[in-house]
Amino acid sequence: MQYRLFDLPDLPADEPEPKLSYGRRLTIRNEGLIAQGYNPASRRQLLRGADPDCQLRCKDCKHAWRMYGWTGSFFKCAKNPRGVTRSIATDIRWKWPACVLFEPREDTNQRTAVRSEEP
């Protein structure tokens, strides 16, 4: 005989959460860091923390560059404290807000400036 503290109806079993891919979990973590006011790549505070109207992005910074690989190109940040690797963990998004290490690009066409070799 089974004794219960309360007479409650049996509850249905919880459905298991769908497993998220590593890339999706990484995106969720990065979005959380941005919401807290930190750049996911440099782990530094965002410029918009000091100026809420700041519209500068990683794509406008001279430390952001493009690395070419076998399957395409990937955006990296030279100021990433984990270094520059060939891993998705050190990829950046050009749409991310700029951090306090921001330095403007010196070229005229900021969106297409790339560097094919590592810094």
What does this 3D model show about the protein?
Strands 1-2 form a two-stranded antiparallel ribbon. Helices cover 13% and strands 10% of the residues. The chain has a domain of 69 residues. The radius of gyration is 21 Å and the shape is elongated. The chain has 1 helix and 2 strands, in the order αββ. With 119 residues, it is mostly loops.
Any chance you could write out the topology, listing elements then pairs?
Layout (H helix, E strand, L loop, with lengths): L21 H15 L27 E6 L2 E6 L42
Antiparallel strand pairs: 1-2
Largest sheet: 2 strands, antiparallel
Query: Helical content, roughly?
Result: 10-25%
What is the rounded Rg? 21 Å
Shape descriptor reads elongated
Number of helices: 1
Give the H and E element order.
HEE
Strand order of the largest sheet: 1-2
Mean pLDDT across the residues is 82
| Secondary structure tally: strands | 2
- Give the terminus-to-terminus CA distance: 71 Å
